[in-house]
TrEMBL record:
Key words of the record: Signal
InterPro entries for this protein: TraB/PrgY/GumN_fam, YbaP-like
Protein name per the record: TraB family protein
Signal peptide positions on this chain: 1-19
Transmembrane segments: none
UniProt cross-references to Pfam families, sorted A to Z: TraB_PrgY_gumN
Amino acid sequence: MKKILLFTLVLFTTLGSQAQESSLLWKISGKGLKQPSWLYGTYHLLCKDEINISPAAKQAFANASTLYLEMNMADPKFAANMQQMLAPKPENDLRKAMSASDFQVFSTYIRDSFHMDATQLIHFKPLVLISLLMVHHMSCPPTGVEQEFIEMAKAANKPVAGLESLETQLKIFDIIPDSIQMADIIKDIKDPEAARIRDEQTKKYYASGDVDKIFDYALGESSFADYATILLYNRNKNWIPVIADAASKGSTFFAFGAGHLGGEEGVIKLLRKQGYTVEPVK
């Protein structure tokens, strides 16, 4: 379950980056830009006290005129649109994505944890269950780095935009078969301690900026690695013209899952191939 979130909503890596370049904050300059812009790798689901935005990142944000997230989560219609897109559909039946024994494990867990019948959830997409279970295991009200930046943008009256639409991002989950997503959920239900340890270790890597090791966690199972092109690389390529256009209009702060930063097909190298200077900021 957490590995799916790592690879999609919680993509926190720098694939293939050299250790000396490890950083969550990156400066974009050159290629005729009158002002620098910034890239920042985020973690999508944390406790408030786990969020630690560096002074350098706060200063970069203050210098920027616009905030770009993966999606425009500051849009007043965002929550309602997401609720509509993730509403249960009779044609969805997650029982078909599980064995009878796994469905029994799932049913028992839902009954014991949420005091409800599992049949009330089987018509949702796995993404809804992933989010539900992730939040349930948290010891605090859930938030994320993006939400922190949204609050900062509101306070500074900065406009917020998105690199892609909500619909585009949600469609990504449809590409991963329900059976694979449910198998990962069942795995974590059966071994919650392993899931907890993995989650805590991932947070430690993120807090230290050790994004290479986080990538190893995210790619821990080949079934998810098979979807890297769709989940990461294609989206990275689609974002480059959006980033280039926004940066050409003024200093912009781009905050998105850190898994999109590194690697041969990551945002950093794609921007460098376009002629921009992209350098880490400590």
